Amino acid sequence: MFGLGPFEMVVIGVIAVVLFGGNLPEVARKLGGSYREFRRGLNEVQQQFRLAEHEAKKNLSVDDSKSSKTTEVDDEEEEPAGPKAPKFKPPS
Known about the structure:
Oligomer: single chain
Distance between the termini: 87 Å
Shape: elongated
Strand content: under 5%
Largest sheet: none
Order of helices and strands: HH
Radius of gyration: 33 Å
């Protein structure tokens, strides 16, 4: 678990008992509740990102279909009749 061997887990357990003593179950409950709230918040943020990504993909697909329709119409129109700026004539 977490890359810790049995000896390391025993050392951590002994340190926890020495530090918290009789309050260890209460401390563990509070720690578990805090972790649970953290995970809920993290899941909410992930859900919001997924929703935003889904909406962005949906909008891009709608934009792509609109742009493909406009390019079909543009292909049917005549080509522009040359540049609109006057031609450059070098001095003689």
